[in-house]
Amino acid sequence: MDTDLFVAWFEETARLVREERDRLTRLDAAIGDADHGTNLDRGLTEVCKALADSAPESAAEVLTTAGTTLIRRVGGASGPLYGSVFRQMGKALLTPVTLAGFSAAFEAGVVAVERLGKAALGDKTMVDALAPASRALALAVRDGVGVQEALDQAARAAAEGAKATIPMQARKGRASYLGERSIGHEDPGAASAVLFMTALATVAG
Description:
It is a single chain. Helix content is about 70%, strand content about 0%. With about 200 residues, the protein is mainly α. α6 (about 125-145) runs antiparallel to α7 (about 145-165). The relative contact order is 0.15.
């Protein structure tokens, strides 16, 4: 898992978010501000530009640059939340990058977003996709699974977690103001988290 892989991760995520921008915005229109797809698309475009301009020399630097850019460039809650994930990952990631080291850094990133958003599993947020992905990675490390299969498992866990938000009532964020009316809608943050995990599994292949 080298520096180029991490750059490719954000490039592929940017591509997927651009492709899914309207769906993310529709999901957000149902229970939020209707800007999640647009904001994330713009932010990831800025991330790719920042990475191209700065030519990071390590995976940790890629993550830190991406996180800082998302915080500065993305409106709404998603910029600070995703930015915190990647900045914390950048601080925690050791070189050379192993699957175990990546899993530990990813877990640190999830903990950071849980603290910032004061969110936990079941609150109908991006945590409902990120936490299962982190758990799947940790289990893969425990079981000695290879990098590709581990990332595939993480992406599947994220997708299952996002799907599980549909019947939930939101307890955090703007969606929580809707009460029972938030039930029946997939959380847009969880949906975009799936794109991040899918992109990583894709570029690792």
